[in-house]
Design goal:
binds 5'-O-[hydroxy(phenylacetyl)phosphoryl]adenosine; 4-stranded antiparallel beta sheet; GMP Synthetase, Chain A, domain 3; 12 helices; alpha/beta; 2 domains; 9-stranded mixed beta sheet; Rossmann fold
């Protein structure tokens, strides 16, 4: 079942022609933006160099740090009046990275690719979709919402948390499609199993899971425990949000909707473009977005590209499930967290020393974040007196920066491990 048969099954050669036309269009728009204008000049790139689709590799890369440097709207290619919505995700430091959409970007790009993804997972207008991704600045909630509206399904915008309520709605409203992070789905199900839920009232047939890395083993666990099909959904705010690539019923890689986003796999160190089935960093160029296009955006996500035809009939290339990241970004309950964000909060507090350890774990299928920080000597001497207020201040500040709660421990000076080389500040105990 296709949402847009013409685009999803278009012969590759024909699609390449379309891509080249669209690429020229987007590059011409970017050439008028001061950031890109400068980047093109520095790289000695001129839009006229684009003669065939492989000339894409002549365009200079863009990076997450470029978004930080042009914060908030410097990479937009439409005036703010034309931008109808903004979203934001974690940057490497305190400020978020901001992305913007025109009405057309939302209706004809985002909702369109999400409609394709839902359809590929077997969802139709007859389904009741429980959307348990976070609504707000995070791209998950509204991305899944717009796609659900587009296919004409009934959407329950329940957002994250409140597991008891999720289960109640799931039974009472007859949810058939669940959208949330894969780890949350398992947590939800463990609560269903331990509470005396009437299983005959659970009508779930599939789930669209993403926003964090997960494995095929985790898929098997979800599918066998929940008796549903579990589909991998991939995306990132900078490219569109969820809906950059999604699995079809064959569950054999994620189709990249490359009439909107052209994927490349590169060698992270040299920047050289790699061939099909070679592992490297995913890079995307958006070729239809008006508000905030990105050219050769370095995702830091590690994957492979498959260009052979999928048995489902779609001609879009596929990426392999993301196997890791080329930087230190952690994904905790679907939220991007950089250790540097935690560090910057620690450094704001004069009572604390810049020695800290971050431990991420998974308890009952839910990610946990614990941060241990050393107190300075003076503060340590008054620990009993200072601790409650200091912990509260730190906890509130971390939550406002990270959007998740951390379990905090204030340690005695000199007690956390020191290292001679690179500090190992993060212990990730999760097994996926
Ligand atoms: O997490 C978009 C999304 C929302 C995708 C809901 C799927 C479902 P960001 O917050 O900008 O956007 O985070 C993007 O999350 O670069 C990956 O490292 C990671 N990520 C997203 N989906 C997957 C996935 C959303 N299916 C970052 N597998 C990306 C592994 C994923 N990692």
């Amino acid at each position: 079942m296709y949402w847009n048969k013409k685009m999803e099954t278009m012969p590759v050669k024909e699609r390449e022609k379309l891509q080249l036309k669209r690429l020229k269009w987007v590059v011409a728009r970017c050439a008028k933006n001061p950031f890109y204008k400068k980047r093109f000049k520095e790289a000695g790139f001129a839009p006229a160099q684009l003669k065939k689709i492989s000339d894409l590799s002549k365009i200079p890369f863009t990076y997450k740090t470029d978004l930080r440097d042009t914060y908030p709207f410097g990479m937009f290619t439409e005036p703010l009046q034309k931008i109808t919505e903004v979203h934001a995700s974690s940057g490497t430091t305190g400020k978020p990275i901001v992305v913007g959409y025109t009405k057309n970007d939302i209706e004809n790009v985002w909702a369109e690719v999400m409609a394709r993804a839902y359809t590929a997972a077997g969802a139709t207008s007859k389904d009741v979709i429980q959307n348990a991704y976070g609504y707000g600045l995070f791209t998950g909630g509204l991305g899944f919402h717009y796609g659900a509206l587009k296919i004409g399904a009934t959407v329950i915008p329940v957002a994250t948390g409140n597991t008891e309520r999720q289960i109640m709605l799931m039974q009472d409203f007859g949810t058939t499609v669940l959208c949330c992070t894969p780890s949350y789905s398992l947590y939800l199900y463990s609560v269903i199993e331990s509470s005396k839920t009437d299983m005959s009232k659970i009508k779930l047939k599939c789930g669209l899971f993403g926003a964090e890395p997960w494995s095929n083993n985790m898929r098997k666990e979800i599918e066998s425990r929940m008796h549903i099909k579990a589909y991998d959904m991939y995306g990132l705010s900078e490219v569109i949000g969820p809906g950059v690539a999604a699995e079809c019923e064959k569950q054999n890689g994620l189709h990249v909707y490359d009439d909107h986003f052209i994927p490349e796999i590169i060698d992270s160190k040299t920047g050289e473009v790699l061939g099909p089935e070679e592992e490297g960093e995913l890079v995307f160029t958006t070729i239809t977005k008006e508000g905030f296009p990105v050219l050769r955006y370095r995702t830091k996500d590690i994957s492979k590209l498959y260009v052979d035809k999928c048995a489902c009939g779609r001609t879009h290339p596929r990426i392999e499930r993301i196997s890791g990241r080329a930087d230190d970004m952690l994904i905790i309950r679907g939220i991007n967290v950089f250790p540097s964000q935690i560090e910057s909060v620690v450094l704001e507090m004069p009572e604390l020393e810049p020695f800290y350890q971050i431990t991420v774990d998974r308890v009952n299928n839910l990610d946990t974040l614990a941060v241990e920080i050393e107190l300075g000597q003076k503060a340590f001497e008054k620990k009993a007196e200072l601790e409650p207020a200091l912990k509260k201040r730190l906890s509130d500040r971390l939550e406002s920066v990270l959007q998740i709660k951390a379990d905090l421990t204030l340690a005695a000076p000199g007690t956390l491990p020191r290292s001679e080389g690179k500090a190992k500040r993060v212990i990730d105990k999760r097994k996926m």
